[in-house]
């Protein structure tokens, strides 16, 4: 299965302007009940990712005064991304290696088309495993009845 397949039916990605305050970004995350936001540039391109973990780390390191700062000043500069045509196994490996919970999905043109979470990948893996188990179960039943 590819990342593009996983995005079908998912809601649009919540993005914010990179100049918004950290406090406002936290409010947006809380309102939408999400664990990460994609920061966009003035041109609307995805530039960084801000996660709940990032928020906790920056407040712990710099104190509550950081809440009034623009989010682009506190969000990590590195933003891993994945291609919509990548296989889920590759994305799982990348996220596991980097201990990332979210990864933006970006077309080669630079267009943000979605975001994948660890929960999305877990759900897809569970569905695939369940399907495989059903197929194996059905094959075993056919073999049993064919031998009678």
TrEMBL record:
Keywords: CBS domain. The keyword Zinc does not apply. The keyword Translocase does not apply. Residues 9-66, 74-131 form the CBS domain. It holds the Pfam family CBS. This is CBS domain-containing protein. It comes from Cupriavidus campinensis. The lineage of its organism: Bacteria, Pseudomonadati, Pseudomonadota, Betaproteobacteria, Burkholderiales.
